[in-house]
Amino acid sequence: MKIGLLTSGGDCPGLNAVIRGAVLKGVISHTTEFVGFRWGWRGVVERDLMPITRHDVRGLARQGGTILGSSRTNPFEGEGGGPENIQRMLDEEGIDAIIAIGGEGTLTAARRLYDEGGIKVIGVPKTIDNDLLATDYSFGFDTAVEIATEAIDRLRTTADSHGRCMVLEVMGRHVGWIALHSGMAGGAHAILIPEQPQSIEQICEWVESVRERGRAPLVVVAEGFTLPDMTEAHSHKGLDAFNRPRLGGIAEMLAPMIEERTGIESRATVLGHIQRGGEPTAYDRVLATRLGMAAVEAVYDESWGNMVTLRGTEIKTVSIAEATGSLNTVPQSRYDEARILFG
Amino acid sequence: MKIGLLTSGGDCPGLNAVIRGAVLKGVISHTTEFVGFRWGWRGVVERDLMPITRHDVRGLARQGGTILGSSRTNPFEGEGGGPENIQRMLDEEGIDAIIAIGGEGTLTAARRLYDEGGIKVIGVPKTIDNDLLATDYSFGFDTAVEIATEAIDRLRTTADSHGRCMVLEVMGRHVGWIALHSGMAGGAHAILIPEQPQSIEQICEWVESVRERGRAPLVVVAEGFTLPDMTEAHSHKGLDAFNRPRLGGIAEMLAPMIEERTGIESRATVLGHIQRGGEPTAYDRVLATRLGMAAVEAVYDESWGNMVTLRGTEIKTVSIAEATGSLNTVPQSRYDEARILFG
Amino acid sequence: MKIGLLTSGGDCPGLNAVIRGAVLKGVISHTTEFVGFRWGWRGVVERDLMPITRHDVRGLARQGGTILGSSRTNPFEGEGGGPENIQRMLDEEGIDAIIAIGGEGTLTAARRLYDEGGIKVIGVPKTIDNDLLATDYSFGFDTAVEIATEAIDRLRTTADSHGRCMVLEVMGRHVGWIALHSGMAGGAHAILIPEQPQSIEQICEWVESVRERGRAPLVVVAEGFTLPDMTEAHSHKGLDAFNRPRLGGIAEMLAPMIEERTGIESRATVLGHIQRGGEPTAYDRVLATRLGMAAVEAVYDESWGNMVTLRGTEIKTVSIAEATGSLNTVPQSRYDEARILFG
Amino acid sequence: MKIGLLTSGGDCPGLNAVIRGAVLKGVISHTTEFVGFRWGWRGVVERDLMPITRHDVRGLARQGGTILGSSRTNPFEGEGGGPENIQRMLDEEGIDAIIAIGGEGTLTAARRLYDEGGIKVIGVPKTIDNDLLATDYSFGFDTAVEIATEAIDRLRTTADSHGRCMVLEVMGRHVGWIALHSGMAGGAHAILIPEQPQSIEQICEWVESVRERGRAPLVVVAEGFTLPDMTEAHSHKGLDAFNRPRLGGIAEMLAPMIEERTGIESRATVLGHIQRGGEPTAYDRVLATRLGMAAVEAVYDESWGNMVTLRGTEIKTVSIAEATGSLNTVPQSRYDEARILFG
């Protein structure tokens, strides 16, 4: 049996651990062969492949990024795209199944390839923001939270030494999990997430109450947070001429607003790409390894069109449809819980 | 309302975060007062108390250890021990309920105090080994795994540079969770846990097969692992005259045995106390904070004799009886999964 | 004897270790008393003092920031400013000498207070950028380099996974030491520092040669780096309406320029305040502790108007004039050395 | 020109960075070729070589250990040993010079090969203990100190939570630099080093005075520390049947002695191999890279029989004789300085 692996979308700590887990599972227990498609779906539609042996995955559990490369190519586009072309390629290359590691877009495309063309595909959910339903946590999230928490720990001493308000922007375009967890872990005085718009007045009230207790306020904000009265124009402030992700978007907007209203000197820090690179935490290495192994198991079970997930302490297989379509947002109860800590 | 807090048994990263979570929850949302019993149950039976204010818990989420101190005192012993004396003390001090943070012994004692004397007590499970049922994970475990994984990462380069076999001993007297997770995360070539006795011949076979693939073998062993033919005397080798935990017990026994049988130079390292001290990971800070908050909630709910636990992503309240009595051992399926990676 | 301590200017890992070293040295070996001036020179001119006991410095070696607070107040300004007012305050408070921990501005002011008013003052150099002459290294620098290097390690995996060019901006307004050392440690493909203006053409040539070798380019740039043809306006691009340090200044300018010229997708990351907060490295803790102890020694030696410095492995006392007036820039030889590694 | 590289003796963080620095320097600026001798001098006497290209050193700055392997083989022994055989091998392999990276034994042997046989050799000092004269610091030392300091930080919370005395054993057979620096950085209450024998009574006095101040004592001891009345037998307690480095030697001896005399529960921790493996700190990466580059420079300068060293901020070339023969011990003044902090 020969399995093709691909990693798609933004990189995420643990991608290589998934690859390693899959290959070791297949090679050792079932003498399966592996190939990697380079640069995500692009390798599929452009037939850009590389063999992956046991030797190639040595030491990959702790290595950030993906040895296969990644891109945002759509498998339904381009000359080699679509189910028919892909099936022909698979037949010619002798590939029996695809394990696609990616976010909502990749998983949805994988499902569609199976539904429309019978492509034998298994999904592995990848979202550093933890925004996919049907999995308790996704790999990479724990690492991102850890890095954001370390940043909060560092910013706190600067805040205290200068009596400043520090505003830290972390990842989270549509959901606020990284902000919620790092904010709780780091003892932030306000956590701002896309699910819970807050007025600038409310934010400044929190900031001032912290100041009144003699402390330097620390605000964690997810990149996707918006003020209720933010106009379209505001929310896109920071998108540069090349239409790339904003550097210093919402945090850079909030810091001067807070300073102006409260008179407390305020500074913005944008963590950016540092959150998604480098070595995964042990938690993410274990989770990613187990998901990779389970994906190969799912191939052996011919569980096409499904994906592997974490439920409690168990790895399960669920329909991709279950995991996509709507977002895993922060529920009100979790935000209320965290809000008590704001003080 | 006034709540008394205590931490009992070996220290564990996250104890202070539980205390902080409880105090913030009580102070901010319900104007509850808190006192801490010093040195675990000893503070209860000896009436050694300290007030804990909001100011006292500042910055505690990231601080290892416990500001209350800990010991292994039994609340049924001593002059002030037993339900009657304790109830009298609580009445005189105006304390309405106790939140007891501790392992199996503490939780069982807490339950007995409630059953036999109606002492209003809520438990918070604390076990760095992750050996308690009824909670998916306990705080401190993630930190211990992270530290053990970093140690494996470091030992690997020494192993490779000298062509040596490194044997790392991690915590786990009765269950092998720390060894299992750190071994998977660090890419160990053999994981030895109490639940799965292995013969020295099997261990040496794994070690030699690693050598044959041109690599330096890395073995992770839980302190409670035993060889099938280990006599009583052997298994206690290393227990010193003061009956204290062995330093370099099983690893120091295995390394020369492996070297003698395989001819591969072998070295033992014992992580020891480093695994249980210092700053908790972000994961443990969040979990411990939530448990502390939920314990106060359980007090308000008068959920006496119960404890708070993690199930999936939710904090639940369960009967202490559910969590004690038998151990949360590594199931066969998880060991089989990990064993595939030994290669 | 009573000594007054103050910390002035931007915070820096190791400030608290200096305070602890000074207090322990004075308290234990000479029964000296200490007071701290709050918020730097502001505490001097506004007579805002706090006693510092041995108990207060417990655990401070590893704590980032400064327990005294800091500001940029000038001791020659304000109602209580100038040598005469300060001497009167010192007399009234029974303070025999001041140890001033700060950068070039603070040291120069300290010297002037001594020259013009005979104020008994000893300086401790503080510059995270390492831009002071007369000391081999200043505390905080090693920590900043370590943090920047970790960021490079993390960015590398993202760069490789996406075939992108990553541009990391680190501190260094006038000198490029942090960029030089972190760039060498992290294996950057180009290091851009204020002392060595490079044309955008040269930068793109380096970037493209990396790409041709099949790697993803990683550029480290000090915040004070300028392109030779940068106009005044450009170089201030990013200074916001409140005249605060630019967020994403030079890196945000360079990334799109590189992308436009080379066609390689490029991303900017600005480390910012994270570099100056949090726990110091062991190196900085030792250096800062020794400097604090030596400053008290210098008080006992009545070495007024001087400062303590590191030379090789020794702590020396030198005239403040030696250390100020000109900058400790990266010499050509060190840049040439690093440039070989760009490849 | 072709240069042969070798790494000898115990592994040390930064060895790979030296190799990388040398190769990049030679390849890029002078089109020099490199080969590596495998397993230290053994590769020389057994003619076990591998080519090292620029591609092979990619990413090595941050990788612990040595890609060449290491051993303690003596180049004057064995069939291929001695200057004549080695010169013949070099001639036949077309190798012009050897860069030997190692400790006192390696450097002395290198010098002897040059003195007795004219072998063109340059030394790079490697000692994690920092026990070589003629260099301010050696690479690997900073990493070891950082790891030991992190261990102290972790042990402190356990000590405080249980009111215990913790005894941490760090590396340092003949000199106490690692104990001195990590003890100062971590705020140890007693630092015990080979250069300064202390009686058990003195140690217990320090421990008790800490207890009296309400704190939990933390003792750092270098593995080579001895009590003044330690017999030969005692000092070798812990050496096992295979004559290998003691696991838990001096710390395991001291902890029960302290407990017995003071009544304070005491625990020993032995850091062991963890100190010498894994990623180097940024400091060590920069130092090692510069030394590797300078060694190639020394080859071009035909500075045979010499070694490269750090003096202040500069890399210098000195005679090997200067660096060997006597040890770089901790001077009395540095111990007195640290002792003030014991309290």
TrEMBL record, chains A, B, C, D:
InterPro entries: ATP_PFK, ATP_PFK_prok-type, Phosphofructokinase_CS, Phosphofructokinase_dom, Phosphofructokinase_III, PKF_sf. The keyword Cell division does not apply. The keyword Magnesium applies. GO terms for cellular component: 6-phosphofructokinase complex. This is ATP-dependent 6-phosphofructokinase. Its cofactor is Mg(2+). Keywords: ATP-binding, Cytoplasm, Glycolysis, Kinase, Magnesium, Metal-binding, Nucleotide-binding, Transferase. The active site is at residue 129. It is found in: Cytoplasm. Pathway: Carbohydrate degradation; glycolysis; D-glyceraldehyde 3-phosphate and glycerone phosphate from D-glucose: step 3/4. Substrate binds at residues 127-129, 164, 171-173, 223, 267, 273-276. It catalyses: beta-D-fructose 6-phosphate + ATP = beta-D-fructose 1,6-bisphosphate + ADP + H(+). Residues 2-299 form the Phosphofructokinase domain. It holds the Pfam family PFK. It comes from the Bacteria. SUPFAM superfamilies: Phosphofructokinase. One of its GO terms (biological process) is canonical glycolysis. Belongs to the phosphofructokinase type A (PFKA) family. Mixed-substrate PFK group III subfamily. The record marks 105 as: Important for substrate specificity. ATP binds at residues 10, 72-73, 103-106. One of its GO terms (molecular function) is 6-phosphofructokinase activity. It is an enzyme of class 2 (transferase). Its EC number is 2.7.1.11. Catalyzes the phosphorylation of D-fructose 6-phosphate to fructose 1,6-bisphosphate by ATP, the first committing step of glycolysis. Homodimer or homotetramer.
